[in-house]
Design brief:
The protein has 168 residues and is mainly alpha-helical. The chain contains six helices and no strands. It has one domain: Four Helix Bundle (Hemerythrin (Met), subunit A) (Up-down Bundle).
Length: 168
């Protein structure tokens, strides 16, 4: 029996993991795209939650690779960045007046400090767009390139959650 470290995987398993990650990214992206028009007018909070779930999946995938809990692959890196980039371009459209009163973790500061909120959204969109561009067609070539691309994105998540999210 060949002993492997937790990060060493047979080539077949690596390919299977990449296919799974790609399917996951496609599923979240499709869900966000298809569900958004269907419920947007009636339930903006639900749309925000769907978009943020896709975003959280991308961030979780990124975090697992950054922490070494999952082997880095360019396809997985691209999928993580793509899911966060997609959310960044749509997310801000679903914070209509009155939607703060519903079951949400959106902080009142979103509506009280609209300029600050818009600035956070702009930072998020800018960071994800830059990361997507840096990813190229195949995804960031190695973990260091991925860290450089996704680090600023995760930083915007942190700053936004600190000021514009209610902790439960």
């Amino acid at each position: 029996m060949v002993e492997r470290s937790p990060t060493q995987r047979p080539a077949g398993l690596k390919m299977q993991m990449e296919k799974t990650v790609n399917k996951l990214a496609l599923a979240f992206g499709t869900l966000a795209i298809l569900a958004t028009p269907a419920v947007a007018a009636e339930d903006p909070v639900m749309v925000r939650k769907i978009l943020m779930q896709g975003n959280a999946a991308g961030a979780g995938l990124a975090g697992a690779m950054l922490k070494g809990e999952m082997e880095y692959s360019p396809a997985a890196g691209k999928a993580a960045i793509a899911s966060m980039n997609a959310a960044s371009h749509a997310f801000g459209d679903y914070f209509s007046e009155g939607s703060a009163e519903e079951d949400t973790t959106a902080a009142p500061a979103i509506w009280e400090d609209a300029a600050g909120w818009e600035a956070e959204l702009a930072k998020f969109t800018s960071a994800t767009s830059a990361a997507a561009e840096a990813s190229g067609r195949e995804g960031p070539a190695d973990l260091d390139t991925f860290k450089a691309a996704v680090g600023p994105v995760l930083g915007t998540c942190k700053s936004c959650h600190e000021g514009y999210r209610v902790k439960r």
